[in-house]
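Dear Dr. H.,

I hope your travels went smoothly. While you were away I took the liberty of generating a structure for the chain from your last submission, since the lab meeting agenda had it listed for discussion. I wanted you to have the full record in hand beforehand rather than looking at slides cold. The sequence, exactly as received, is reproduced here:
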Amino acid sequence: MHLDEDLKLAVRLADAAGDAIRPHFRSGLEAERKTDASPVTVADKAGEEAMRRILTAEVPRDGVIGEEFGRSEGASGRQWVLDPIDGTVSFLAGRPIFGTLIALLVEGWPVLGVIDQPILGERWIGASGRPTTFNAGPARTRACRALSDASIATTGPHYFDEHQGAHFMALAAKTDHKRMVMGGDCYNYGLLASGHIDLVCEAGLKLHDWAALVPVVEGAGGTMCDWNGEPLHAESDGHVLAIGDPARLEDVIEALACHH
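The corresponding predicted structure, in token form, is as follows:
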């Protein structure tokens, strides 16, 4: 399939997920607990089911990896990676900063990504070799002259173990940490792509948490990598960095590495 066709399909997936999720937002929904104790709702399940129905009908040979319903192997070397509600905690708290994440992987590398916020009607779309869009216009990261000027975001300190937390704090100490943003999940990466945040640093992410973010951030002029500066692919270990200004990459890796 051609990238244009894939992008059209991804947009249909985002629309379908949004239609399934919106009625449940701020509806007093109860969360169940998954095996890892993270919350999941009927809205997560409805969103993923809506996307899977379309994929089964349109691209039956492609694999699907979804947060809620696991992995179905395909025969094409392509996988659609779905996270219907990234940021279930925000969703349950009535904060419209969760997002639906849709990625297409080819041979394990993300080539297309969508971050969709269905309540605010905000959508970032990234694809290999193309500029990222935010709604109808372009999304561009901003320049950051020095690490000490950088604003940094992370979903929360409780997602780091002690070792990871020490490295994160070593990095945060070298940034403008008075502007540190906590909470936000995938939404922070959209904000970075649009030039409002300079760095996002996280650990323990699963493939469905980050795959869609890579084409969005990179198509906006930023860079994404693991904590060693290596590109992200299906086998990456979940240590994720997004850097709006690639000129700061070495500074960030160095600051992360040196904790006392």
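Two observations you may find useful: The longest strand covers residues 78-86. The helical segments are 3-21, 42-58, 88-92, 162-173, 187-193, 207-210, 213-219, 249-257.

With kind regards,
E. W.
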